[in-house]
Amino acid sequence: MNNKLDNGQKKIKCTDIITGNGKFIGSHFHLGYKIMQNSYIFSEKEERKIDKAVYMINWIILNTEYLQQIVKRKFCNISGRNVAARIKYAYLTTEIEIVENLKDTKGNLVLGLSIPNKNRIWLNSKRLQKSELDIARTIFHEVIHSLGFVHSRHEFINIFGELLKYYYDINSQKIQNEYHLFLKKRNKTGGVHTLTD
After folding, report:
1. How many CB atoms lie within 10 A of CB 188?
2. Does 91 have pLDDT greater than 80?
3. In this predicted structure, which of 11-25, 53-67, 68-82, 135-149 has the lowest mean pLDDT?
4. Which among 75, 47, 98 is positioned nearest to 158, based on CA atoms?
5. Please, which residues have CB within 8 angstroms of residue 3's CB and are 6 or more apart in sequence?
């Protein structure tokens, strides 16, 4: 397996992660979502998977050293601090549309699509057969694109999903427990698809 990203930067490994006491102080990050209705009919189970995937993204950004790890890196000609700041202040309600046999502009089947600087992403319905973590990685990958980062200029894009997986793996039980508490609280208050304290 190639251990370098396209720009020569090493891929992340567990030994590259520095642990510590947690939060990126003052982070305002919040990812909400709204599922756009179209011809795809999805099940309640699939909708729950999307809900949990979005919760996981929010939890990891707000409760781990995820952003500190981004700050420590240099991405092509962009400092990690600038990239982390763009994520830190992102307060998005992303429109998610599920599409069967999703294709890019070249006709290739893809897992997800987004347009830079737009809060809308498209997910291939086949992705909903995967785990919540896989769905979270795809959604966050597309969110990173929606913040203005694209493959042709920012070869580092996959590092975001790798970090998401790393922090999920070491916090999975805590995330599971807190998600269930979050659902109970949301059900009592009649809340919708948002993550609040």
Report:
1. 8
2. no
3. 11-25
4. 75
5. 10, 11
Please give the structure tokens belonging to residue 115: 């347009």
pLDDT tens column, 162-186: 899 999 999 999 999 999 998 888 8
153-162 in b/e form (b: 16+ CB < 10 A) is ebbbbbbbbe
Beta-bridge mates of residue 114: 121
pLDDT for 168: 95
Whether this prediction's pTM lies above 0.85 is answered by no
**How far does CA 117 lie from the centroid of its chain?**
16
pLDDT digits (tens, 9 = 90+) for 5-42: 333 333 333 223 333 333 344 456 888 888 887 778 87
Starting at the earlier edge strand, list the strands of the sheet with 91-99: 30-36, 91-99, 120-124, 112-114
As a three-state string, the secondary structure of the chain is: CCCECCCCCECCCHHHCCCCCCCCCCCCCEEEEEEECCCCCCCHHHHHHHHHHHHHHHHHHHHCCHHHHHHCCEECCEEHHHHHHHHHCCEEEEEEEEECCCECCCCCECCEEECCCCCEEEEEHHHHHCCHHHHHHHHHHHHHHHCCCCCCCCCCCCHHHHHHHHHHHHHHHHHHHHHHHHHHHHHHHCCCCCCCC
